[in-house]
Specification:
Length: 177
């Protein structure tokens, strides 16, 4: 969900998710890690939906979930049969705390706590569109990610040279680094 800074409910969602993360952090230490891939973004569409569909269609043995802090969107996705987790649920966030990877497409919000305090792999895939009018300061949140997946060698060059992303963190199709 897109955070609207003027909407008090959104601030409550953020606070609740941060508290839930704090409560579930120990489950990463005391319970077995799982092979789950957690997808997090505004909506389950674009690159995240492509990854979700790819994993679901291949029965690869991986679990894949879309994570949301929006209660209404959670209910909608659940009704549609999507594997979805809610950031306000302790049991759902315990699954996230034990995940193998978290894939984002537009920032981490409170999930940054997992990135800072655990060994969960973080990957960003953005929305699949080029950045316009941004500079390296805008993308400091990506500097801690393990990988940032981009659409092409040209976009990889752009991320490295214009957004100050370390070369070994940027991945384009068909490359290993």
């Amino acid at each position: 969900m897109k955070i609207n800074r003027k909407n008090h409910k959104h601030w409550l969602y953020l606070l609740r998710s941060a508290a839930t993360i704090a409560v579930t952090m120990p489950s990463r230490v005391f319970q077995k890690k799982n092979n789950a891939i957690i997808l997090y973004g505004h909506k389950l569409n674009g690159n995240l939906l492509s990854i979700y569909d790819f994993i679901m269609e291949r029965n690869s043995g991986l679990e894949v979930f879309f994570l949301t802090m929006d209660p209404a969107y959670y209910r909608q996705l659940k009704q549609d049969g999507v594997e979805v987790l809610h950031m306000g649920s302790v049991s759902d966030m315990a699954k996230v705390a034990r995940a193998g990877a978290i894939v984002t497409d537009h920032g981490t919000h409170t999930l940054i706590l997992y990135r800072l305090l655990t060994s969960i792999t973080f990957v960003d895939v953005w929305h699949g569109l080029s950045y316009k009018g941004f500079d390296s300061g805008t993308f400091k949140h990506l500097h801690g990610h393990d990988e940032v997946w981009v659409q092409s060698e040209t976009m990889k060059w752009f991320y490295i040279n214009n957004l100050a992303l370390r070369k070994n963190r940027s991945r384009s199709p068909g490359t290993a680094g």
